[in-house]
Amino acid sequence: MSDPTPTNACTEVYFDGSCPLCRREISLYQNLKSDQPIEWVDVSVEQSSLPAGVTHAQLMKRFHTRTAQGELLSGAAAFVHIWAQLPGWRLLASLARIPGVLWLMERTYRGFLVIRPSIQRVFRKLDQA
């Protein structure tokens, strides 16, 4: 797994804009001043400029970022990478550098992905209320 440090500035964030939970989280990030410009790409809308080597389905299943050097990160590494660039989130990114923490975060994220559809249903109902 790559080191998601701020030295590899994030240029693109790929997120599922059809997910109400994801939209809320991304909105929170977008309202913060990042160290570097970030392009927010909603992959729920078919795009012609998706990163090479990854499918639309893969982007919909997991959170991804692309570094300024072109490296594609996903899952916990992608979250840590973006956190490292956002005020208020850098401490979490620093904690993820402790040996074993990123591994644990990735396992937790994979568990979350299993229950994500149920959580999405709850948030969709909240949006309708």
From TrEMBL:
This is Thiol-disulfide oxidoreductase. The lineage of its organism: Bacteria, Pseudomonadati, Pseudomonadota, Betaproteobacteria, Burkholderiales.
